[in-house]
Structure to design on (618 residues):
């Protein structure tokens, strides 16, 4: 059974009078990579800084590798942090950067050299050992930062938006590399990012954060298909959220009314059990444009934009503006009347949120 | 070599500026070697006797030593306080109120004569401090704006996450400041210290209030001397002082590369 490497318990944190974390709970298993995903100001970086010890929580407890580290100062935490801007020491060579943590731990010079060489070998920078960081490319700097963090054998690796300064192509390469290194070393890791694709591709589990709380924590697969709230649904691409009210139940089939009067029939075999009121989250590819008005929402086509693989239409309906993608073979004129049908394969069912 | 054409007018303007800057220096050097009992330019004859006289006058020698002590002490105090202030101001920018940084520039805005008087009232009258520490403290405050400004400028683009990186790798935060932050802002620290040193060495107004019986700085002695005598000894002192300053600058330039720093 995998041990819990990191336990965050009821963490509350403030910046001055502003509360930025509202009782955060998170458990990370040994060897697992968990991402904290959210837009800026959601508390993901605060969580990381609490873990690193740069911030003190107002209340709550942090346990790493079975040890309560809540009150431990940052230099005693053995945190392997990869910073957003690499944070390499500009006046030290690559080898000195990588060996920095070992030197602090008073590892003798010969062993230090051996371990630094091994680390550099692993990230493919042996030939750059004696260069200064300024002489490296972005990707190389990132590798040095990674090697430096890994060199101290940290119980927990922390990544603070490590790829946001790289260009798109390199970003994809580097995240594969990070994932491989993390897995090969069996390191527990926490990864902060605002990039959904990055988080999903790299993580075992993703915690989606909003306003100082984890809204949903699950595997990327579940998050992508079964978000638990409107917030997460929008985050993972369910652009259309349509509230419905059940008017008739007939065995497995449920007929629901949409604002404006349109009636939609859903099969609970397909959607799972439905409450009397619920919200359908639909990706643009989950809405079909059709001339057939039955089991559909009527609307007016506003704008069409070309996406390469498909056309995207904005459609004005009584329940609000909806976005639908249609194949290139299916060209509709702007300004015309159209009916919208759901393809429940690309939809999710959400509870109604009162506010 | 590129043969770029220079407008004759800007050439003239350029030479005027050079002349204006260098003129007084040339005149001082000229008068210091003039073999006349009064200041004469162009020099009449050539002698080094005024330089001899400088070293024969105890007042000049002693006040020069005092000036150096005060400049050194004042710069050290200002450096420690200014470094801490500049660090705090850039590191905790977000958390500090905006007017906080302006406090350190107050000595810029207060007329020096007023500043000197208030120093007299506080340091000497109120706290009854001896003259030498008073001078050092007074000059430290006078120099603080330069230090905070110059070090602040080199910290402006500083990425404090490298200090955090060092701490996360096991270095004590204070040690991380010395071995990670300081080496990367070294040039700013040196530039600030040099400016402070020169400011202290040149100060007249503050020293006028703080010096007293038996303890005087070189500018004060020069001033006093000129009031009584009008021989070229003063020019000789000035030339020597310039030589010392240039010597210090050259030494720093050779060892640390000052021209890279002040640019």
């Amino acid at each position: 059974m995998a041990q819990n490497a990191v336990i965050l318990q009821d963490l509350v944190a403030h910046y001055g009078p502003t509360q930025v974390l509202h009782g955060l709970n998170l458990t990370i298993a040994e060897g697992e990579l968990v991402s904290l995903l959210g837009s800026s100001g959601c508390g993901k970086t605060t969580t990381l800084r609490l873990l690193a010890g740069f911030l003190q929580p107002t209340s709550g407890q942090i346990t790493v590798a079975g040890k309560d580290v809540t009150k431990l100062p940052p230099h005693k935490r053995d945190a392997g942090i990869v910073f957003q801007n690499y944070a390499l020491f500009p006046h030290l060579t690559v080898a000195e950067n990588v060996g920095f943590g070992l030197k602090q731990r008073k590892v003798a010079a010969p062993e230090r050299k051996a371990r630094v060489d091994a680390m550099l070998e692993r990230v493919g920078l042996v030939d750059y050992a004696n260069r200064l960081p300024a002489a490296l490319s972005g990707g190389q700097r990132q590798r040095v930062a990674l090697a430096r963090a890994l060199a101290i054998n940290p119980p927990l690796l922390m990544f603070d938006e490590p790829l946001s300064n790289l260009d798109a192509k390199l970003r994809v390469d580097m995240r594969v590399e990070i994932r491989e290194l993390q897995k090969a070393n069996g390191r527990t890791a926490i990864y902060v990012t605002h990039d959904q694709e990055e988080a999903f591709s790299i993580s075992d589990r993703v915690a989606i954060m909003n306003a100082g709380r984890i809204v949903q924590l699950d595997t990327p697969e579940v998050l992508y298909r079964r978000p638990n709230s409107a917030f997460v649904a929008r985050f993972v691409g369910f652009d259309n959220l349509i509230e419905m009210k059940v008017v008739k139940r007939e065995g497995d089939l449920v007929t629901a009314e949409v604002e404006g009067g349109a009636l939609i029939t859903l099969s609970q075999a397909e959607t799972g059990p439905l409450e009397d009121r619920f919200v359908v989250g639909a990706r643009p590819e989950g809405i079909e444009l059709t001339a057939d008005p039955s089991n559909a929402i009527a609307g007016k086509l506003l704008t069409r934009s070309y996406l390469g693989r498909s056309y995207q239409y904005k459609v004005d309906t009584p329940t609000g503006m909806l976005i639908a993608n249609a194949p290139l073979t299916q060209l509709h004129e702007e300004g015309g009347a159209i009916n919208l049908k759901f393809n429940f394969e690309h939809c999710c069912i959400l509870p109604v949120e009162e506010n | 070599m590129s043969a770029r054409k220079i407008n004759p007018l800007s050439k003239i303007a350029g030479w005027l500026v050079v002349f204006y800057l260098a003129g007084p220096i040339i005149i001082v050097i000229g008068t210091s070697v003039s073999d006349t009992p009064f200041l004469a330019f162009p020099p009449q004859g050539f002698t080094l006797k005024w330089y001899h006289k400088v070293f024969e006058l105890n007042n000049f020698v002693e006040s020069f030593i005092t000036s150096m002590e005060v400049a050194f002490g004042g710069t050290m105090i200002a450096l420690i306080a200014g470094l801490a202030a500049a660090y705090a101001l850039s590191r905790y920018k977000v958390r500090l109120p905006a007017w906080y940084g302006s406090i350190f520039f107050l000595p810029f805005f207060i007329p020096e004569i007023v500043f000197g008087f208030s120093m007299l009232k506080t340091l000497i009258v109120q706290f009854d401090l001896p003259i030498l520490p008073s001078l050092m403290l007074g000059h430290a405050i006078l120099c603080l704006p330069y230090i905070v400004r110059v070090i602040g400028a080199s910290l402006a683009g500083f990425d404090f996450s490298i200090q955090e990186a060092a701490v996360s790798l096991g270095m004590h935060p204070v040690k991380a400041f010395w071995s990670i932050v300081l080496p990367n802002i070294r040039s700013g620290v040196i530039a600030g210290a040099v400016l402070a040193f020169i400011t202290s060495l040149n100060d007249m107004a503050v020293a006028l209030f703080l010096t007293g019986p038996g303890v005087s700085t070189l500018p004060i002695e020069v001033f006093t001397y000129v009031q009584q005598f009008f021989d070229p000894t003063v020019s000789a002192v000035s030339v020597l002082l310039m030589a010392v300053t240039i010597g210090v600058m050259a030494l720093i330039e050779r060892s640390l590369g000052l021209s890279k720093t002040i640019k």
Notes: The two ends of chain B are 25 Å apart (CA to CA). Residues 31 and 41 of chain B are 6 Å apart (CA to CA). Chain B has two domains: 6-47, 55-262.
